[in-house]
Write the structure tokens for this entry.
Amino acid sequence: MSSENGRRHVVIVGGGFAGLGCAQKLADHEDMHVTLLDRNNYHQFQPLLYQVATSLLAPADIAHSLREVFADQDNVDVKLAEISEVDLASKTVKSGDGGEWSGDALVLAAGSQPNFFGTQGAPENSFPLYSLDNATQLRSRILGLLEQVDRDPKLIDRGALNFVIVGGGPTGVEVAGAIGDMIELTLPAEYRNVDASRAHIYLVDLGDALLKPFSDKAHHYVANVLKKKGVDVHLGTGVKEVHTGHAVLSDGTLVPTRCVIWGGGIKAAPVAANCGLAQGRGGRIDVQPDLTLAGSPGAYAIGDIANISGPDGQPLPQLGSVALQSGKAAAENILADFHGKPREPFVYRDKGIMAMIGRTEAIAAVGKKHHEVHGQLAHLAWLGVHASLMTGTRDKIEAIIEWGWDRFSKTGGPHVLDRGEAAEIDWEDDPAVMPSAAS
Ligand SMILES: Cc1cc2nc3c(=O)[nH]c(=O)nc-3n(C[C@H](O)[C@H](O)[C@H](O)COP(=O)(O)OP(=O)(O)OC[C@H]3O[C@@H](n4cnc5c(N)ncnc54)[C@H](O)[C@@H]3O)c2cc1C
């Protein structure tokens, strides 16, 4: 038995919303010992990555040290480890650098990774937005482009102010709105020599509407708000190829650009492929109604890595609220198991969906019936929900101050170019957009 000091031992892989929710619930029970493993020593708040990428928030506003979260709970150990092997039968996980952990229960909560759907050049040449590392790289690329155009306006002819955003879901819409604001407000205030009128934001999506799960009325609202922010929306259009200096759209259009932002889809984290189970939709792990894995007693999958069925039999969406609630529900079932009680099926309490479009506009479908609100009211709902989801009080206060500052200032938050490698561009590396080829 892997129990420690007479306590039952639970190993959790991943300290996102799901893993953290599970660990926090178990930490309240003195007869439990938790080992929380993550490849980062912090919890990252993914819904706000786009605000870091567009300089509205600082990285520290959305990343919270996992050790600090559990500083007062001696029954939770945090370990920095990237798990590469999973043995469900012995409930053991291993990291590539020789670490090994076994538990009485094992919880897989390793989240998602970007899905490039085989798009040529996208993994190497586009900027996904799935981690804090991604967000700071994108921020440095955007700021690097503005700095370079400030010194050499001719680079605009080679696509330096063209931004191509792939995917019309919340990530794509939110980042498009925020870049629109940056161009309208930050450029005139801080990059006075950059001709903002020459910037071009493309938002492409293969479907027939942005933010598909919302109503038709909402689709029009979103399209109008983005249009006012200078975003050029191309529906029914994908990105076929991404090169170092240009992107090719599915209709054949060649767009010179040094900034393709990937919000085009996600799939399960690689851990899902390493546990010997058949993978379901999106490469995710199918779970039973009580979040356990069939044939592996004591093993659970929660959050984005799991295919969790909703009341209609369809998989629940990959959302922070699904992850958090499934984490807490898995903890309840682990406790029930250890205390000889029956496990309960997971019931998701749908509090709605929302997206922010630039600084002041937002759309929210609130509650189980998804009652839609737009504009200021939705913006306030968005602020409230996201502040309440944040891990620590300090994070909440700092983020609210930043949001307030951003709402009333023209320039937004910290325009810090701290990832030199992402900002560095070899302008001669793409023959298709060299001046001689373009003319
Ligand atoms: C840009 C963006 C915007 C979003 N906006 C919203 C929104 O507005 N509202 C909403 O509800 N949801 C939103 N989501 C979705 C939401 O963030 C996810 O559904 C949620 O984060 C899933 O939680 P999780 O714990 O399952 O996974 P994650 O939050 O991805 O956490 C997984 C954790 O596992 C760790 N990990 C991964 N692999 C390993 C490994 N091999 N070894 C060790 N550790 C590992 C990771 O470091 C990470 O800490 C957004 C997502 C993105 C990317």
In short: The chain has a mean pLDDT of 91. The chain is about 30% helix and 25% strand. Residues 13-19, 37-40, 46-47, 49-50, 82-83, 109-112, 129-130, 170-171, 269, 271, 303-305, 318-321, 323 surround flavin-adenine dinucleotide (CB under 6 Å). The domain at 122-264+415-438 is CATH 3.50.50.100 (FAD/NAD(P)-binding domain).
